Amino acid sequence: MEESLELSNSKKNNEESTVHHDVTRRLKAPYLSGIPLRIMIFMLDYVPGMASFFFWNAGLKALRKLSFEDHPTIFPLPLPKEAFGIEETTVIDGLEIFEKQKDSRPKNYSSGLLGTSDFHEAYLAKRVTPLQVCEALLLKIEETLDVTKCNPPLNAIFKYQRDDIIAQATASTERYANDCSLGLLDGIPIAVKDEVDVKGYETNAGTKFINHGNPAKDDATIIERLKEKGAIIIGKTAMHEIGFGITNNNPFVCTPRNPYNANHYPGGSSGGSGAAVASGLCPIAIGCDGGGSIRIPSSFCGIYGLKTTCGRFSAYGEFAVSGPMAANVDDLALSYYVMAGKDPKDPHSLHQPLPTLHGLYFTNTLSDLKIGVYSAWNKQVDNPAITLALNTYINELKLRGAKIIEIKIPELEEVRLAHLLTIGTELTNTAKRYHHKLHLFSCPTRTNFNLMKLVTASDYITSQQIRTRIMHTLADLFNNQVNLILTPTTAITAPKVHSRSLSFGEIDATITSDTMRFIQLANFSGVPAVSVPAGYDDNNLPIGLQFIAKWYDEATLLRIAKTSEEILGNGRRKPSDKLWFGNYVRKVSENFFGESQVSKL
Question: pTM of this prediction?
Answer without folding.
Answer: 0.94
